[in-house]
Amino acid sequence: MNTFATLGDALGQWLRQQLASPSAAGLMSATDKQWLDAHRSLPTVISWSAIKAEYQRLGLTELSQRLAADADFAAAVTLLLATGQMPDRLAPVALLPVLTTSDSWSSGSVPVAGTLGASSYYSTSLPRKSRDGSLTVGWVPAYSEPTNAWLYAQFVSPVQVKRLHLYVSGSTYSPTSVAIECASSLTGVWSTVATFAVQQVTSEQIFAVPAYAAHPCWRVRILAIAGNQPGIFEWQLDGLPS
Q1: What is the pLDDT of residues 102-120, one digit of tens each?
Q2: Best label site of 59, 74, 89, 199, fewest CB within 10 Å?
């Protein structure tokens, strides 16, 4: 695509020169013609079907690298996405479904299957309460674990998390600081991707998660609380499945 732009700029420049001081009206000089013929021989044909196929074929990491390294490919992809010719594979999608009777789910309304859980829970405040679609009840950790308790999602294949959504109580039953962490397994070493200050409001709070490698296990860990037992009423992870 840059070749088209270069060729167009060159023709425009030549035309302006001809209009300003034409050496032979309507004719190119031999040098100009030789230069233009050389540009005509460049591979300027774009295969849109090949670009779409490559965009779909590459893994997400490879795709990101390819877009960053090739401006022509990135421009072609941008044009195809803007005109609705293909779905945006790098746009985050919801990764967690609504859960009612089970902590596990299969891919259907979400792209990747998995299981929800927590480090502990109080009474009937089960982990799945944080994904039951109700903003009046949620997950509460055991009283012995007011901080450093965590709520996790284990996916069957790695995902890259882009956003964290949180609903909290807006009272003293709320975390004031949380960390988003990931690991290769539930028993593995957890890496902290980012920490977020949680406001004491009942409206949804959305946090952008910094770019990080895809992992099958992600969790939200409570770092600090407002003064009483904390709870997360609803949460959602948006991201990219591998």
Answers
A1: 999 999 889 999 999 999 9
A2: 59
Percent of the chain clearing pLDDT 70 (strictly above): 82
**What is the distance between the alpha carbons of residues 170 and 236, in angstroms, rounded to a whole number?**
18
Give alpha helix (H) positions in the chain.
2-20, 30-40, 48-57, 60-69, 71-82
Percent helix, strand and coil across the chain, each rounded to 5? 30, 30, 45
What is the pLDDT averaged over residues 150-161? Answer: 97
Question: Distance (Å, rounded) from C-alpha 125 to C-alpha 151?
Answer: 12
User: Rounded distance, CA 57 to CA 51, Å?
Assistant: 10
Domains and CATH numbers, the chain: 3-83 (no CATH), 93-241 (2.60.120.260)
End-to-end CA distance of the chain: 29
